[in-house]
Every structure is written in structure tokens, then in C-alpha cells.
């Protein structure tokens, strides 16, 4: 699984890519993750199975989804608080949920706990 993390200039995406890569390897998954920018996306998209889009690129999401769909690539818009995911596990859960893999998304930090029976 090849994960492309896209942001405006590549700085924050580098941290997210590194963290999700470490989280995947800790779970024994052979995922790679690399950072890209909005400008490098047309080239980088060919090497990705999943594209994680920084929340500040919401304005470009429709175009990114259209370009990715032509290549069969899954697109995930990252939540605004994703940069606080210090160990990459929440980001990995978003990827796994998007591709239909076990270990779906973790609840948001401010989400209410599920009701108890």
C-alpha cells in the first residue's frame, strides 16, 4: 500500500507521512508513505494507492478526487486536528477505513463515548 500525504508546501505532510509509516510498520503492515505538495500531485498521484489530503486543501478536494478517480486511487480528507496524531495510529485508522481494512477510524478526541447496554 502506497500512501501519499499532500499539503500546501510539503512540511506538515512530511510529518504525517513519517508517523503513519511508523504506525503501519509497528502493526506489521507493508505500507509506504511519502509526502507531496499540491503542485507535485499530478506526478505523485501515479505512485499512490491512497491520497491523504491536508484539511487546508479543501478548496482543491473535488479536483484531487477527480484526478485520483481516473487512476483508481482512494482520497481521504484529513480532519483539522490530524497534526496532533503524534504516533500516526489515528491516521493509519483513517487509511484502513478508507480501503475497507480492519481497524477502522478511531473516535475523535471530543466524541462522546458509545452508550452502554
Automatic annotation (TrEMBL):
Residues 1-105 form the PTS EIIB type-3 domain. One of its GO terms (biological process) is phosphoenolpyruvate-dependent sugar phosphotransferase system. Its EC number is 2.7.1.69. Transmembrane segments: none annotated. It comes from the Bacteria. Keywords: Kinase, Phosphoprotein, Phosphotransferase system, Sugar transport, Transferase, Transport. PROSITE patterns: PTS_EIIB_TYPE_3 (PS51100). Coiled coil: none annotated. The modification Phosphocysteine is found at residue 7. One of its GO terms (molecular function) is protein-N(PI)-phosphohistidine-sugar phosphotransferase activity. This is Lichenan-specific phosphotransferase enzyme IIB component.
